[in-house]
Amino acid sequence: MITSNNFTSAIKIRLQGGRRSRQQKQPLPPQYGYGQGPQFFDDTTNIYPNLQFQGQPPGPGWNNQTFGQPSFPGQQILGDPMAAMAMQYGQTLAGQGKVIVNEKLEKFVSVSKLKYYFAVDTAYVAKKLGLIFFPFTHSDWSVHYNQEEPVAPRYDINAPDLYIPSMAFVTYILTAGYLLGTQNKFSPEQLGIHASSALAWLTIELAIILLALYVLNIGNSLKVLDLTAFCSYKYVCMIAAVLASLIFSSLGYFAVLCYCSLSLDFFLLRTLRVSLLSQSTSDHYGGGSRRSLYLLLVLCVVQPFIMYWLTRHLVLDVGVQSNVME
Amino acid sequence: MTFTLYSLFEAALLCVNAVAVLHEERFLSKVGWGRDDQTTRGFGEDPGVKSQLINLIHSIRTVMRIPLIFLNIVTILFKLILG
């Protein structure tokens, strides 16, 4: 299959030439970019090297194309080289189509920005969880930047991520289900209701904060996803409080809730003060930073109440338990 | 605590409808929230809370005028059919 190899490698070189030249000017850790501009984190979605790559680092989305090694089972039957070459060309076209679809999707959902928030590793997650529960000894809260772009969470513990919030959200739904089970109130619809309710409260909180940021004219550099991450760190504390209620019932619940509110407030204050104050002192002096500080304080005060409101019906004997009708 | 995403959608729709019925000439100017009275401000300065709110109301009214028609029709049909 020499002709097919030459054909496919010719296509590969032509299509990847542009991408390779774009990747050559990055200084820092090896760039496994997705093809949409410089990215300062290792995109570990495609880590399995493909033997056909002739020494290039494993990475960009062509890994799914097995050039010269068709993965479908009918290859032995199609001994005809022309048919096999047509198959490989079809696979190339499919790959191109995938890239185009991804680019179109990028305009709506912005997948590469999302990938930044999920570029974490175990050490980061462990340290961050420890930081949420005990932030009092941490000294340096500034986020490290790398040429105007924040460094990936893997390299900087102060950077926000979306991995912990999403995992915490799912874990919270599951622990809520477990708690409902211990009270014999469980049914599968309850899981959906809890998930929907928690998401709705999160959305309301985000909407109010974004509205306040717009009206008070502060927080121009705080992105929506960053805010989502910060607002969702309380799910971790809610899980802890709810689990404590399993062992120690109401007393444990309130004790853990109080301590977690304290530590979460401290954590949020320190983290957001750095990011809000750093960009407010450049434009408006005095008034702007005071307003952002007030907003931050209101946010911190509100967090314990939301945590209490979302978990009280799981722990305490609240009389209002709406039925699962409709 | 049946607070679902759908009730959030309904609440948001009601709020946006409420903002959309605030007529600029007949109402907002009479209470001093019109857009023409806000011109006596510095340029590069911090726009105040009130002018930001007025701008927000004006943008919501401009942008959501047409989509609100469709959203309201859809919600009305939804409530008619599914109660």
UniProtKB/TrEMBL annotation, chain A:
Keywords: Endoplasmic reticulum, Golgi apparatus, Membrane, Protein transport, Transmembrane, Transmembrane helix, Transport. Residues 15-35 are annotated as: Disordered. It is found in: Endoplasmic reticulum membrane; Golgi apparatus membrane. The keyword Membrane applies. It holds the Pfam family YIF1. It is a multi-pass membrane protein. The chain crosses the membrane at residues 162-181, 193-215, 227-247, 293-310. Its main location: endoplasmic reticulum. Belongs to the YIF1 family. Has a role in transport between endoplasmic reticulum and Golgi. This is Protein YIF1. It comes from Limulus polyphemus. The lineage of its organism: Eukaryota, Metazoa, Ecdysozoa, Arthropoda, Chelicerata.
UniProtKB/TrEMBL annotation, chain B:
The keyword Lyase does not apply. InterPro entries: Yos1. Keywords: Membrane, Protein transport, Signal, Transmembrane, Transmembrane helix, Transport. It is found in: Membrane. The chain crosses the membrane at residues 63-82. The keyword Transmembrane helix applies. Residues 1-18 form the signal peptide. Regulator of endoplasmic reticulum secretion that acts as a key determinant of brain size. Required for secretion of extracellular matrix proteins. Required for correct brain development by depositing sufficient extracellular matrix proteins for tissue integrity and the proliferation of neural progenitors. Acts as a regulator of the unfolded protein response (UPR). Belongs to the YOS1 family. PANTHER family: IMMEDIATE EARLY RESPONSE 3-INTERACTING PROTEIN 1. This is Immediate early response 3-interacting protein 1. It comes from Limulus polyphemus (Atlantic horseshoe crab).
